[in-house]
Specification:
- Keywords: Cell junction, Cell membrane, Membrane, Signal, Tight junction, Transmembrane, Transmembrane helix.
- It is found in: Cell junction, Tight junction; Cell membrane.
- The protein is of the alpha+beta class and 219 residues long.
- Helices cover 63% and strands 11% of the residues.
Length: 219
């Protein structure tokens, strides 16, 4: 029962990780630059994401521009696009597979099949967490390096936005869920290996026939 509850907790973490991963991929605020200027009424907030750049004006106007050209983008943005999409796909596969392999569901067949499905789903979550952690770390490193560079003007410097933090947290949820699923299946298999089922030995029919034959000789 404890193992089933732990798997259910890991499944909830994985769901939060999947939704956060998709949100971080689509949000436009990976980089944020707030330019207040001399008057706060005319303040402008510029946000840059993986797929679009948006500008928010303090007057209430909001405009976005899609990034159509892939080759014109920096390498870290191209890598972030690819890895984040792979993370979303792997985490979605993990949700489908672990739904079959969890102990609290009636899908997946026998115990061994459910263990294998649960382990495969955990591996998908771990890979999705790694694919989500790499682009957010690389993106944050580029932002910090540009911010500390003295040759770059202040107007061109940015700070990490909410999408980066969402990606970090989602990757952590996916990694924790994957480790829990894999370890729960591994413990069950290890327990079955250390404590094999007892085998009952029954006397063969040949011995019974021989014993009966010997008794007849004494009569």
């Amino acid at each position: 029962m404890a193992s089933a509850s732990l798997q259910f907790f890991a499944f909830i973490l994985a769901l939060f990780g999947v939704f956060g991963d998709i949100a971080a991929t689509l949000l436009p605020n990976w980089k944020v630059n707030a330019d207040v200027g001399s008057n706060i009424i005319t303040a402008i907030t510029q946000m840059q994401g993986l797929w679009m750049d948006c500008t928010w004006y303090s007057t209430g106007m909001f405009s976005c521009t899609l990034k159509y050209s892939i080759l014109s983008l920096p390498v870290y943005i191209q890598a972030a696009r690819t890895t984040m999409v792979l993370s979303c796909i792997l985490s979605a596969f993990g949700i489908c597979i672990t739904t079959v392999g969890m102990k609290c569901t009636k899908l997946g067949g026998d115990t061994d099949s459910k263990n294998h499905a649960c382990f495969a789903g955990g591996l998908c979550f771990i890979l999705a967490g790694i694919f989500g952690l790499v682009p957010t770390s690389w993106y944050t490193r580029e932002i910090i390096s540009n911010f500390l560079d003295q040759t770059i003007p202040e107007s061109s410097k940015h700070e990490p936005g909410g999408a980066v933090y969402t990606g970090f947290i989602s990757a952590g949820f996916l990694l924790i869920a994957g480790v829990i699923f894999c370890s729960s299946c591994f413990k069950r298999q290890q327990g079955a290996w250390m404590y094999p089922p007892k085998q009952h030995h029954f006397p063969s029919t040949e011995q019974e026939s021989n014993a009966g034959y010997n008794l007849k000789d004494y009569v």
